[in-house]
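dude i think i finally got it to work??
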Amino acid sequence: MPAQLDDDLVAAACRGDADARGDIWRALAPVVAGYLAARGADDPDALTSDVFLAVLPKLGDISGGAAGLRTFVFSVAHARLVDDRRRRSRRPATVAFDAQEHDSAAPSAEHEALSQLGTHDVHALLDRLAPDYREVLALRVVADLGVEQTAAVMRRSAGSVKQLQRRALIALRAELERVTGAAAHSITDAS
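look at this
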């Protein structure tokens, strides 16, 4: 089990402690891969490696402790995801992502509400949302970033992220009700 990601661990990693760097990888890599998979990355594991290849050499420049590191890591992940999408738009993908083989999302109220549907159904449901809605839900729910961290990754204000998340959850609730024919109040109640 990886060490708890805290300011002391980040400080040790910034000083070059190899064990601390390994602990950071073990703590954040699964969450980054989950975020990238939820956002439709072609190869989330490869992109996760790219993220850490960019992050680890810059650890000495990180400020803000564990929270600053998480924000930086997901900013790099977001940038790698944008690069991946641009690359894929220039050439068609040859292998589709199999969402049923990947289950690294952390449980949440949204996850519990959607657990009645299959993974494929959830991805189809999320695909009906606007791109900004999918992005904010992936960062807040899958990546488990705070409002301020999500705002930094999305380059928006915290208030804008809160409003965007609220609208995304309302839109998700409406889609879920449309698909299942049942009330999905727990989704918006969890925000």
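The radius of gyration is 17 Å.
im so relieved honestly
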